[in-house]
Amino acid sequence: MARNENSIFYGVDRITLIVYVLLVIMGWLNIYAAVYDEEHQNIFDTSQKYGKQLIWIGGAAVIAFSILLIDANFYTAFAYGFYGFFLLMNILVIFLGKEIKGSHSWFRFGSAGIQPAEFMKFATGLALAKFLSNQNIIINQQFRLRLKDLIKNYKNTVFALLFIILPLILIIKLQNETGLAIVFIAFIIVLYREGLSVGFLIFGLLTAILFVVALIVTSISGLLITMAVIAASAFLFIRRSRKNLILVIIVFIAASGVVLTTNYVYNHLEDHQKVRIDVLLGRGTVDLKKEGYNVNQAKIAIGSGGFLGKGYLQGTQTKYDFVPEQDTDFIFCTVGEEWGFVGSTVVIFLELFLILRLIFLSERQRSDFSRIYGYGVASVLFFHLAVNIGMTIGLMPVIGIPLPFFSYGGSSLWSFTILLFIFIKLDSNRLLILR
């Protein structure tokens, strides 16, 4: 961006920066529209959420500049330090934090609150990049990959998964914050970029599909018989050998295990989690005034916007508070109602463009650490985007995660800003490496 090497903007990707600013400003305007009323029309009123969000945006700008001022090598050197510090913060919040809506995950400072689980995302991205880049150095220094190195790689996969699973379990079990916790699953995408077999991904997707089918199908015995027939048929059409027979039997046993344990897993979920799954799958009769209310109102708000929308500040569903959490988790409803299909498409395009831009920048990195971290940022943003919009239109269960750079809240905005700008700084350092 800047030609002067002494400038903090030296090497900063201008396109990424512009898209970030656009998304933040559009998010702020939509928060104003979501909570707008005729008594409070001053968009700079700090007693209202949009005024408070402006303060958070100012803080985010300070954070962004601070990150650009720090040497890029700092983030590599202290990657494990960040991970350990925020892991500790997520433990301390259980004892020192305040419970909000059943979740014990907030530090309160007067009227403001900070959620350490949000900041655990960038810390996990750094730690994962540090670990995987170190393993790449070890492997690249060898002339050929031997059997013992393959075994070592499997061990590396286990350790990499531990970096992801540890905060996930901690946040779910101790903080009761399921929505934020499952975001860490997005980091598994990074492992596939770094060589993890796609077979694991296929296995995971098939397991999820089988879990859903087992919930929908009432006859478990009928489902098992159908699977047995499919397994037998598959063996007839593939090359018949002892090895393939064993493989088919193992897959059938594993699939049967998933089917037989589905009800057990479902029955041990929290009541609100069961309700969200039932609403998504249409199990039983959904009361649109109770458990189905959020999603139903969200669909009405988005659908009522039509092609061009009702106009800025003209949304009736959001203005009269028909949509719950319309400035946070369901902020996309405001976009759909007031900006219509066209506006919604623009927002989704900008979010996706940013993600694709990050992937492009990641692939041009000369440092393994920077590439891996870049993919981590892109994966987290994509997961947030897909799940948030998916739940507002009824394609995914409501789990309560923010839309990147749009939803109200300081913790989410600051965490996304840190997540993004660390990579922007790492990418700018690429020019210095080339010299």
Short description:
By secondary structure, the protein is mainly α.
* Secondary-structure class: mainly alpha
Query: What separation lies between the terminal Cα atoms?
Result: 17 Å
Q: Report the biggest beta sheet as strand number plus sense, adding barrel if it closes.
A: 3 strands, antiparallel
Please report the total strand number as a whole number: 3
Q: What is the global morphology?
A: globular
The radius of gyration over CA amounts to 24 Å
Total number of domains:
2
| Distinct helical segment count | 18
Overall helicity: 55-70%
What is the oligomeric state here? Answer: single chain
Strand residue percentage: under 5%
One letter per element, helices H and strands E, the order comes to HHHHEEEHHHHHHHHHHHHHH
pLDDT averaged over residues: 80
Widest sheet: strand order?
1-2-3
Spans with pLDDT under 50 lasting ≥5 residues? 137-151
Structure description:
With 435 residues, the chain is mainly alpha-helical. The protein has two domains: 14-193 and 295-434, no CATH class; 203-268. The protein has helices at 14-34, 49-69, 73-77, 79-96, 116-140, 147-175, 178-182, 188-193, 198-216, 220-237, 242-267, 271-281, 293-304, 316-319, 331-363, 368-392, 410-428, 430-434; strands at 98-100, 103-109, 112-114. A hairpin with a 2-residue loop joins strand 1 and strand 2. It is globular, with a radius of gyration of 24 Å.
